[in-house]
Amino acid sequence: MKPKRIEILGIPVDCVTMDEAVDWAESMIHGRQPCTVLAVNPEKIIRAQQDRELLDQLRSADLLIPDGIGVVLAARLLGLGHAERVPGSELMPQLCERAASKGYTVFLFGASTAVNQQAVAVLRDRYPGIRIVGSQHGYVKKEEMPSLVARINECQPDLLFVALGSPHQELWMSRYLPQLKVKVCQGVGGTFDVIAGRVRRAPKFFRSLHLEWFYRLTSNPGRLRRQTALPIFAYRILKERFIRAA
Ligand code: UDP
Q1: Whole-prediction pTM value?
Q2: Which is it for strands 63-66 and 184-187: parallel, antiparallel or unpaired?
Q3: Cα–Cα dist 188/169, whole Å
Q4: Is the N or the C terminus of the chain less surrounded, counting Cβ atoms within 10 Å?
Q5: How far is the CA of 38 from the centre of ligand 1 (A)?
Q6: CB within 6 Å of ligand 1 — which residues?
Q7: 64 shares a domain with 10
Q8: pLDDT tens-digit profile of 108-138?
Q9: What is the CATH number of the domain that holds 188?
Q10: 222 and 151 share a domain?
Q11: How confident is the model over 180-228, as pLDDT tens digits?
């Protein structure tokens, strides 16, 4: 079943729950065309206002998950409907769990060599029997891409996870996916770092208050510049709300 699609500041978002997203991805594994899953968060929404390529890639994705509380609250404030948080970093492990239980094959592309290998090891340990048929670090030169595409196509994975960060991974997917024999491709940003234990998720306390973004910001001030998108996003959402109410 196709989930309800809404638009936040012109960017599409699908109102799915985590279970629906996993079931949807599984149904796509049995389809013919490669499908894309991308996460939508305030930072990406603001960036896509000025980045036409990113905007096009978001618009052409098959499933756009509401990645954080910002998107969920915006949907509510604008009266667009009920969205639930489906973080990309949680969807990937859920898909791996499903893959392990059903025998679907997985390929991990992205992050540093050490992080990539560690993520493979952690997933094998966490989901016994998972069929990880290939992996590749994310610092591949342009001229080496054809051989990576060939290698992925030899493996023909059901699930391809791409962890190059945004918007790099979205652009990579739009460029190379048409050549790839995969079923579902999810852009997962820094998720391999989380799985490998290099980046800690926020403690439960912060997560329960939907303040994971705040924890990440204070524990890694280097992200501050990127997070300037948050107040801009909040301002634009409130402005849009007043325009709609007028
Ligand atoms: N990365 C990569 N190749 C690149 C640039 C980045 O594999 O050319 C990886 C990087 O090592 C890290 C991830 O992409 O694992 C980016 O994580 P970040 O948290 O910045 O992504 P976000 O989730 O914020 O988009």
Answers
A1: 0.92
A2: unpaired
A3: 8
A4: C
A5: 14
A6: 110-112, 115, 138-139, 163-166, 168, 189-190, 192-193
A7: yes
A8: 999 999 999 999 999 999 999 999 999 999 9
A9: 3.40.50
A10: no
A11: 999 999 999 999 999 999 877 778 888 787 787 777 777 777 676 677 8
